[in-house]
Amino acid sequence: MKNEDELYALLNPPSSDGWQPPQRHEGMRDADPDDLHPSRGFTLIEIMVVIAILGMLMTVVGAYVWDNMKEAQVTTTKTKLVQLANGPLSTYKRRMSRVPDSLQELLTESDKNFGNAWCAPVDQRDAWDNDFRYEKLSNTKFRLSSLGADGMEGGEFEEADIVWPDDFTK
After folding, report:
1. pTM score over 0.85
2. CB 132 within 8 Å of CB 85
3. Which has the higher per-residue pLDDT, 30 or 11?
């Protein structure tokens, strides 16, 4: 068998234009095809940096979404109060010539409402799933309220009480 230098010269002959392959030296080896392309993966540091950036973005976005969700619950409760006052309660008052003594009366079926209940139980709950409070002021007037997010009287911001019609006429 021929030695490595002879084999190298045999496999890399000089070309007709005079170009010659580089001389083989001691310790030189043939290129591995896998070494011709750099690694295509991510390093641990790169992955950690991306995770840290995503964590910071989620913190900022999460706080914004949380605040908007609280505002949306207040808006939803105000809307439900208006719908209950201008819908079932107003219809009841028009057909019965008085306001109900309690919201429970709206859940009973009535011939004056074509044999149907005036509203569903879900219509009498706020965005925090608490029952609306109802106060009959006279035969023609009433007050509806929600105790807010905390479910207790008083409070500020989303925990503040929402009262119809008081908070809607200012």
Report:
1. no
2. no
3. 11
